[in-house]
Amino acid sequence: MSDTQNKTGINRRDFIIGASGAGLAAVAYSGAFAKTTDGSSSFDVIIVGGGSAGAVLASRLSEDSSRRVLLLEAGKSYAPESYPDAVRLQSIIGGDPEHDWGFTSEPGWGDVSFPVPRGKVLGGSSAVNAGVAMRATASDFDRWTKAGLPNWSAADVLPFYKKSERTVNGADEFHGRSGPWPIHQLQDDEISDMQRAFIKSAQMAGFPKVDDFNGDQPLGVGPYPMNNRMGQRLNTGMTYLSKAVRARRNLTIRSKALVDRVDIIKGRAEAIILENGERLAGGEIVLSAGAYGTPAILLRSGVGPADNLRGMDIPVVADLPVGQRLQEHPFFYTTWAAKPERIGLPVPPVGAILWAQSSKAAPGEGDFHVSAVHYGDPAASPSGAIFMLALALTRPKSTGTLTLRDRKATTSPRIALNILGEVEDRQKMVEGIEMIRRIARQGPLSDIIVQELVPGVSLTSSADLMAVLPKALDIYHHPTSTAPMGGHNSPHAVTDYQGRVNGVGNLRVADASSFPDVPSVATNPTVIMLAERISAWMRT
């Protein structure tokens, strides 16, 4: 997902199936606003970050015509129908440098570092992701409620998933038909020959077929539900911020607006300070800058671990564990040489998935994803054809940190992911590789395979497989939990169950940073649901 090639030897830019095109220049949509006595702009609500959460909040909160809403986006904005190919085509994952923050993680276990692309454009990372539209499971929300968060059970959040969704698939009990965010459940005839063979082989290995990963029984194998139409990724800047929404007089959208910090006076958030020094006053401020951007803004504002802040000469406003619970899904690419005449066309690049349980999984918890994907360089295959069965550990035990390098808004934060830092995570990865090999030995998939390239057939012991993990290790690009919600007695809580920052008035967090822990699935639909949930609270 970056132009930078990591130690896996895998460059995701090599996976792109054609990309070109120029977008329109960034534009700002101006609505009504007031002026304070000192001449600064004043709004009822200021939302920082126009991505998966911020676009939702801006759309929902501006439905009340009496509420003046300002949405700030550090990247460019485009008209809904005019996004350039790099942030529109489903085949291009990760966008391009023009629409990316350019972050890289610190070296961790195995001395591996990773590019960590994040969307820098109206629509955020929903404009550069793979478009996977799978919801978190009931077991994920069981953990949240057990952690002391009321109103976050699976039953509580289902109406907000449905409110966001527009689909023709699945039962009415679980799905929305008229929401802004389109979801298409891929069918067997829409995926590649290899992906269909993977599904059949997984069934032969004992895994059930799933027709609806967003229904009541999501564990098993089947085609993905996707947020796309006719090869186009439909991000929240297109869907929640439609032409009609952008035309609202009470909504102002400013692009290329880099936020430095929140101006907190006597324990209350009063304004946003941009990197250029401009001050924007707000009655309530919501940080939706993502799992990396939001904690960085909090830290620069004096909200974070007191010792760390004092070490950077930042006055302490609230001593909270910001950036201390970073989680991310590890990814390992098993790679296979294929028979050219049997693999079929490599379209779609992402099409079929197995959601399964390790031997250590909790009841109802799916802690493995295996994605059948047309990634990899065919020139690296002795047969001239290649595919990957990519293993993700979706319930990792390892946690990392996000800290500041300095006080400048233009400086990237220090991102220490600690991927596979816990030995239990490495053991699970080995178990997952063995599971993939078991599937690959089954009928239709085995008929396609010429040779196992990575890890390689000679590596059979647990020790050998653990040793090879750094050579094909990556991340799923689902960072969370850097400003987590928590109960009253939680030592990890930065906000309460409604995203209100502890000890600071008028300030909320609403994005993946506020997840108490990483859910067992791609995070984007759950981020959108969370923004729907929090916007409803803000409107009551």
How far is the N terminus from the C terminus? 40 Å
Largest sheet: 8 strands, mixed
Q: How many helices in DSSP terms?
A: 13
Shape: globular
User: Which structural class best describes the helix and strand composition?
Assistant: alpha/beta
Task: State the domain count.
Answer: 2
Helix-strand blueprint:
Elements: E1 34-35, E2 41-48, H1 54-61, E3 69-72, H2 138-146, H3 154-164, E4 165-166, E5 181-182, E6 184-185, H4 193-204, E7 220-223, E8 225-226, E9 228-229, E10 232-233, H5 236-239, H6 243-246, E11 251-254, E12 259-265, E13 268-274, E14 279-287, H7 290-300, E15 303-304, H8 306-311, E16 318-319, E17 330-338, H9 340-343, E18 350-356, E19 368-373, E20 386-393, E21 401-403, E22 414-416, H10 423-440, H11 443-448, E23 449-454, H12 462-468, E24 473-475, E25 507-509, H13 524-539
Parallel strand pairs: 2-3, 2-14, 3-11, 4-5, 14-25, 15-16
Antiparallel strand pairs: 1-2, 6-8, 7-18, 9-10, 12-13, 13-14, 17-20, 17-23, 17-24, 18-19, 19-20, 21-22
Structure, described:
- With 540 residues, this protein is α/β, with parallel strands linked by helices.
- It has 2 domains: 280 residues, FAD/NAD(P)-binding domain (3-Layer(bba) Sandwich); 197 residues, Glucose Oxidase, domain 3.
- It contains 13 helices and 25 strands.
- The strands form 7 sheets. Strands 1, 2, 3, 11, 12, 13, 14 and 25 form an 8-stranded mixed β-sheet that branches.
- A hairpin with a 2-residue loop joins strand 9 and strand 10.
- Helix 1 runs parallel beside helix 13 and helix 3 crosses helix 13.
- The longest helix has 18 residues.
- It is globular and about 65 Å long.
